[in-house]
Amino acid sequence: MSPVFPMLTVLSMFYYMCLRRRARTATRGEMNSRRAIESNTRALPINVEIVQYAKEVLDFSSHYGSENSMSYTMWNLAGIPNVYPSSGDFTQTAVFRTYGTWWDRCPSARLPFKRTPSTFCSQDYVELAFEEPVYPTAVHILETYHPGAVVRILACSANPYSQNPPAEVRWEILWSEAPMKVNGPQARQFTPCIKQINFPTNLIRLEVNSSLLDYYTELDAVVLHGVKERPVLSLKTSMIDMNDIDEDEDEEKFGCGMDTLNKQFSIVTLREWPTNGYFDKLPYELIQLILSHLTVPDLCRLAQTCKLLYQHCCDPLQYIHLSLQPYWARINDTSLEYLQSRCTLIQWLNLSWTGNRGAISVSGFSRFLKVCGSELVRLELSCGHFLNETCLEVITEMCPNLQELNLSSCDKIPPQAFNHIAKVGSLKRLILYRTKVEQTALLSILNFCSELQHLSLGSCVMIEDYDLIASMMGAKCKKLRSLDLWRCKNITESGIAELASGCQLLEELDLGWCPTLQSSTGCFTNLARKLPNLQKLFLTANRSVCDTDIEELAANCTHLRQLDILGTRMVSPTSLRKLLESCKDLSLLDVSFCSQIDNRVVLELNANFPNVFIKKSFTQ
């Protein structure tokens, strides 16, 4: 028989199974749609497209703005556009906390997890609720400044306004692509071609990656188009996507079918080979090294092939570093229970973004840590809204070797729960950005965790006296290398003096949007003289920064790499030239909205110092 015919047989069977799958999902989708329409008193004709803006912002990972205002916050994504079609830097838009690769080049940068699939590149997210559940036909994203950050759009089967929580929460990717560089910062309406799904949704999630951007991306609004009744798929126009095959229902049948077809191609060769394909002849360590390049789902699939590879794929040495963040939508209590026996030696664990909407329970998380927490050194739990005081207590009891703890944007943890962190005296990194940590708990942590090297307290609005906190840092945290006090509202020159005197190893300091600091008190001059190792200094939106401060930095902080003085009116081109001549390693200088630094000056400085990225933002 010609070799063409077996290949045609493979393609025919694959095409048949895809059509069969579409037929099943269409039937289920039509039933769900009918129920939705029958229960909705405002049901519309099936041919009417509903156009709606986001009603509410439900969740997000970070934002540039303050917790107590609307400027530059994710909450600006709710409702009709505030800025579009205008372009520029506007406070009425939604802005994430970071952009570019600058945050990966500073002392506080964390090492990446291995085995992160190449298809997952998301850095931040925002979830939006809409009034009416619909089958999406289009999603319009109104980007007003430095577009191109959105890399994934997802839809959720759960209705955030339903009184009855669903038994199962399902997420479906509507569109996904790698980050792209967009020419120019001008506004645009981004309308990617989305995939049709088989359930109605009024919960949309945007995931972004800003690493290729020259400045903060700004989003103004999101428009969801959809219909109440599921559209009928056209076989002439719809493309068959591998993602349409439900893994739970078809993976086993599809695998068996492929095995049968493969035997037709190489049945003679298979008889001549040993069952393990000579893998059992290789050294154990070499097989482990080969498998270390596989993602977690690939390891789980490979474990089903033979006993030898099952043994290797289940070896706890393959799970020393484990990031489950790329699979956040599928991780639940069952997943953690399944992984327990494999993670007894785990040292790095990333559960960021996982477990929300009941996917992970407190008991499920606690059971996992009781089995797998003894060797943990690094634990990432960013945006883990299932976390409560019991979880923090379990962490401190079951993870005696813990050195890094990330609780960024875990805003559901009650204030009193943070007291438990003080029991982990080995901590070297603690990220509490956008949490409800209070002053008493933080003082206790600083007192008992004297090994701290990296501390993030950005947007922690429940701390009453930052001068007292800074004084405790200066007295107890002598090894501190990076400190984030972004949007700290009440630190003064007194706290800065205590901090600079006691923490002289500081290499990174973020004092952005700290309005109570005034250059006239000498606080910035004191910083420059006491902290010669500074590599990153953010004085964002401090209007009082002046030439004297810049000249002190030029004279004392010659290792400076990143400086943000956005918004100052007191800095001249002359002092900036001195800084650029002195600080040879400087790579980022943000002079946006600096009234004395116009575009002509920026062009001149760029020409004379081509290795420095000098940012000048604009509004029009």
Automatic annotation (TrEMBL):
GO terms for cellular component: SCF ubiquitin ligase complex. The keyword Isomerase does not apply. CDD domains: F-box_FBXL4. Residues 276-331 form the F-box domain. It comes from the Eukaryota. InterPro entries: F-box-like_dom_sf, F-box_dom, FBXL15_LRR, Leu-rich_rpt_Cys-con_subtyp, LRR_dom_sf. One of its GO terms (biological process) is SCF-dependent proteasomal ubiquitin-dependent protein catabolic process. The keyword Metal-binding does not apply. Keywords: Leucine-rich repeat, Ubl conjugation pathway. This is FBXL4 protein. It comes from Ptilorrhoa leucosticta.
